[in-house]
Amino acid sequence: MRISFIGSGRVAHHFAKQLSKQHQIVQIYSRDLTHAQKLAEQCHAQAIQNYSQFDHNIDLLMIAISDQAIAEVIVNMGRYFENVLIVHTSGSTHLNVLSQQHARSGVFYPLQTFSLERDIDWSNTPLFVEATQVDDLQILVALANSLSNRVYTYDSAQRLSLHLAAVFACNFSNYCYDMAKQVVDAEQVDFSLLYPLILETANKATLNNPKTMQTGPAMRGDQNILNMHMKMLAEAGRGDLKQVYEILSQGIQTRQSSQ
Amino acid sequence: MRISFIGSGRVAHHFAKQLSKQHQIVQIYSRDLTHAQKLAEQCHAQAIQNYSQFDHNIDLLMIAISDQAIAEVIVNMGRYFENVLIVHTSGSTHLNVLSQQHARSGVFYPLQTFSLERDIDWSNTPLFVEATQVDDLQILVALANSLSNRVYTYDSAQRLSLHLAAVFACNFSNYCYDMAKQVVDAEQVDFSLLYPLILETANKATLNNPKTMQTGPAMRGDQNILNMHMKMLAEAGRGDLKQVYEILSQGIQTRQSSQ
After folding, report:
1. Fold match between B2-154 and B159-256?
2. Cα–Cα–Cα angle for A96, A97, A99, nearest 5°?
3. What are B34-57's pLDDT values in tens digits?
């Protein structure tokens, strides 16, 4: 396949380098030409900065830029690639952001943390593909299968739910660790004492349903401890943590009393 | 040392069995005599059910019962052991629950999950000791050192803060996993896709300060994504999860803008 990229950031970087092993990377577009050139050199492509330089003779255009910029790019650039399949690589952008502007639209989303320094284990990276047209979906599935053993054809609602779930499972759990550290720091207690419990809790969630693994005073309905903890937080001037404690404890109790 | 126990549950069970290797376990008291007998047999002790049978000729009395019952037990039984060092084994009960009633009081708390089926790795189990009298603290430190390489003399405020922090770091992070699973389950998306992110997040929190490891839309201040997520939760009829999302996102943003 002949593939071009809009964007030369981390996602474009890793995709272009890996895809260049089996496909021809034609052009890398970036508003910052130096940035585009850096990547283009590594995958024998042409770096460009002007729409007038677009080569339409490609099979796939990958838009790998920040979520907010996708809508504007498809409006301004989509018409240069009228009969070309265009995909974005975002986990949190609906397919219709492209498909409202362009007939042959799709999504090619890798569930992975990218940094420029580290190589990606592509074969184990889940890839989520979606397309408005069945033929295009087959093209994307084939391309995904050439990269990874874990290819999923999920629709936008599913992909977006995964992204939302990751906020709960990762961003919010990390904030729970951060709140825990604030609590022990205030009493000069060593946060590392909690490491075994943190790792064990995470590990158990991958072996069993987290609902059935729930422990703690809220789960047990131990109102004495719940009251003591909220009093401790209030007296420490941490009304913010008290509010979180109260709402999450209520959530656990409601959840445990459900089916 | 001559040691007796009030209680014959999981904590008493593991302590009595381990201590019996180096010390004499004298009596096991339980309201349920059969239960006391089961443990007493394993550590060559006498099982009792009546206060009149108490043998006062001991060096240490360990109260290993539920948190709520400790206050009542020390009022009713403490006078039978007037000159004896009495400790409780609770992470969430202040020393003064004992010391208000009894002169020689202490705490001997293991930070560990106990189940009857599994053996405890005592040498790596953090033990927290505390006592009202300096001589008694030395006795408890020596006893703790004979069990574990990780002995801490923390006061009650410190011990209680550790317990409160564990609620945030473990109980609440597990509830975050549970909420994540509810989000993906509603869209027939495989929760196991999140396992690598869950494990990586927990692992990173043991290597770096969780505050600096924070990621996600709240951390980035990406209001478009925050709004989209809250709209998704509202439209799915999950006002409860929306409330959690909003409060934790606000918490992350406030935290990141602090020093």
Report:
1. no
2. 50
3. 999 999 999 999 999 999 999 999
Homologous superfamily of domain range A159-257 = ProC-like, C-terminal domain (1.10.1040.20)
Cβ of B161 and A178 within 8 Å? no
Q: How many inter-chain contacts (A to B, CB under 8 Å) are there?
A: 257
Nearest-by-Cβ selection for A178 from B157, B197, B211: B211
The three-state secondary structure class of A102 is: coil
pLDDT in tens, B188-215: 999 999 998 899 999 999 999 999 999 9
A57 touches A82 (CB < 8 A):
no
Report CB contact under 8 Å: A219, B92.
no
- The C-alpha of B175 sits at a distance from chain A's nearest C-alpha, in angstroms, of 7
CB B126 within 8 A of CB B145: no
**B168–A158: do the CB atoms touch at under 8 Å?**
no
- Cα–Cα distance for residue pair B185/B236, rounded to 1 Å: 12
Yes or no: is domain B159-256 CATH 1.10.1040.20? yes
pLDDT at A76: 93
Closest Cβ opposite residue B205 in set A158, A198, A232: A198
Tell me the CATH number for domain A2-154: 3.40.50.720
Nearest-CA distance B192 → chain A (Å): 7
For the record, the structure tokens of A161 come out as 């739910």
Confidence bin at A96 (pLDDT 50/70/90): very high
pLDDT on residue B90: 94
8 Å CB contact between A233 and A241 = yes
The residue ranges of every structural domain in chain A are: 2-154, 159-257
Put simply, the answer to whether A169 touches B186 (Cβ < 8 Å) is no
Nearest alpha carbon to residue A16 among A48, A39, A35: A39
Q: Do B202 and A197 touch (CB under 8 A)?
A: no
**How far off is chain A from B228, nearest CA to CA, in Å?**
9
Q: Give the pLDDT band of residue A259 (cuts 50, 70, 90).
A: low
B143-180 pLDDT, tens digit each = 999 999 999 999 999 999 999 999 999 999 999 999 99
Best probe of the A interface among B66, B130, B162, B167, by most A CBs < 10 A, is B167
Q: Which residues contact B6 (CB under 8 A, 6 or more apart)?
A: B29, B61, B62, B63, B64, B65, B73, B77
